[in-house]
Amino acid sequence: MNFALSEDQELIRSSVAELAAKFDDHYWMEKDQAHEFPQEFYDAIAKGGWLGMTIPEEYGGHGLGITEATLLLEEVARSGAAMNGASAIHLSIFGMQPVVKHGSEEMKKETLPRIVNGDLHVCFGVTEPGAGLDTSRITTFAKREGDKYRINGRKVWISKAIESEKILLLTRTTPYDQVTKKTDGMTLFLTDLDRDHVDIRPIRKMGRNAVSSNEVFIDDLMVPVAHRVGEEGQGFKYILDGLNPERMLIAAEALGIGRVALEKAVKYGNERHVFNRPIGMNQGLQFPLADSLARLDAAELILRKATWLYDNGKPCGREANTAKYLCADAGFAAADRALQLHGGMGYSEEYHVSRYFRESRLMKIAPVSQEMILNFLGEHVLGLPRSY
Ligand SMILES: Cc1cc2nc3c(=O)[nH]c(=O)nc-3n(C[C@H](O)[C@H](O)[C@H](O)COP(=O)(O)OP(=O)(O)OC[C@H]3O[C@@H](n4cnc5c(N)ncnc54)[C@H](O)[C@@H]3O)c2cc1C
After folding, report:
1. Closest protein CA for atom 7 of ligand 1
2. Whose CA is closest to atom 14 on ligand 1?
3. Which atom of ligand 1 is nearest to the CA of 367?
4. Which atom of ligand 1 lies closest to the CA of 203?
5. What is the rounded CA–CA span in Å between residue 308 and residue 3?
6. Is the peptide bond before 367 cis (omega within 30 degrees of 0)?
7. To 5 degrees, how large is the angle CA 376–CA 317–CA 136?
8. What pTM did the predictor assign?
9. What pLDDT is attached to residue 241?
10. Nearest Cα to Cα of residue 80 among 286, 250, 258
11. Pocket test for ligand 1, best of 94, 96, 127, 160 (most atoms within 8 A of CB)
């Protein structure tokens, strides 16, 4: 059993940490407060060649695996950039895998090098107000008309839609009541967000405000057949391929936030004196931090196992889901405890832990809720009856 990272992986960790450290907590606080996309950070990451980490070399990327991608996103989150930083680049790092695996050669040549150099922003359009976590119930419909599709429908929560030129869009091409298997009849497109036919409205939200999440209204968007990813009707399957790596990336981001929250808590716990002693001397504060350290370390192990399994072509559903579940919980708990330790100052913006708290809360909900992870483990790993 080998727990060591390779020299290259250690180098990725340290180089990303060095780059991310150029954007301090104040930068992220200001971007968050101004609801402004962190373009300078994004450009620096692109310039460093990091956006192309998992894109195959023939399209200008490095062709690395999910292990390296999780190291990158963990370090970004851990720098204090938290979800504002991670979400700004998350989709470029691994989200184009359906295109890498199933897109046409022309589509890959046109889009992947532009992802690598940072010129192309893409968002991911799956969630719909009427469907929620039951993706089979989406109703955004793509109707074939000659060599085009006419798309109509509504998506919700689509992150970065405002900044994006294109959308990876999941649609129905056969209505729900006309398919034998409920996840059949869905088709994936990579197409332009033509503002004449797409209305994008930001949602006011609790945190991660440097990256917008939006309602997207699609009205008679005409999409060439060439913008279809893979075969008609197979879209859900293509998205499914990417679910395990997505859970691992989110786990890594949660872990990074937990780590930085813990560091901030330890610093304040040593510095702040009340009743003539550092507050960190109180076991009521110290034990929860020690407990968080243990939980973050344990969650990291299952994440490393999950990424290793995936990169070695082995089944990893159990580990990917467990990693997301445990990292999201451990990351949020660490942020909550860090906030508590800061007392009133935890509630202010000045010490940044309230930002970590708000952003780490997200991973218990999206891209998949903790409840759905337990549904997966209960049904597919334990073999209990499906509960819904
Ligand atoms: C900030 C943010 C960014 C996002 N970005 C994107 C994006 O870029 N693209 C995109 O497509 N989506 C995005 N989402 C959407 C996100 O993936 C969904 O919010 C998430 O999957 C949960 O779906 P829902 O909100 O519809 O919850 P619902 O499906 O309405 O569920 C509500 C609650 O009920 C629980 N529940 C439902 N069914 C069951 C069941 N059978 N058993 C137990 N519990 C159940 C859920 O766990 C949840 O707690 C984003 C969301 C947020 C908040």
Report:
1. 158
2. 157
3. 17
4. 1
5. 10
6. yes
7. 55
8. 0.97
9. 86
10. 258
11. 127
What is the predicted pLDDT for the residue at 1? 84
Residue nearest (by alpha carbon) to ligand 1 atom 19? 366
Low-confidence ranges of the chain (pLDDT < 70): none
* Size of the chain, expressed as the number of residues it contains: 388
Interval between CA 213 and ligand 1 midpoint (Å):
13
- Nearest ligand 1 atom to alpha carbon 127: 11
Domains and CATH numbers, the chain: 7-117 (1.10.540.10), 122-234 (2.40.110.10), 237-381 (1.20.140.10)
**Amino acid at the residue 215:** E
Give the tokens for residue 226: 């060439």
Distance CA 193, CA 201 (A): 13
Distance between CA atoms of 278 and 133, rounded to whole angstroms? 46
CA angle (262, 80, 44) in 5-degree steps: 150
3-state class (DSSP) for residue 251: helix
CA of 371 to the centre of ligand 1 (A): 10
CA dist 153 and 140 (Å) reads 4
Q: Which residues does a 6 A CB cutoff place in the pocket of ligand 1?
A: 123-127, 132-133, 157-159, 205, 208, 213, 362, 365-369, 371-372, 375, 388
Q: Are strands 148-159 and 166-172 parallel, antiparallel or unpaired?
A: unpaired
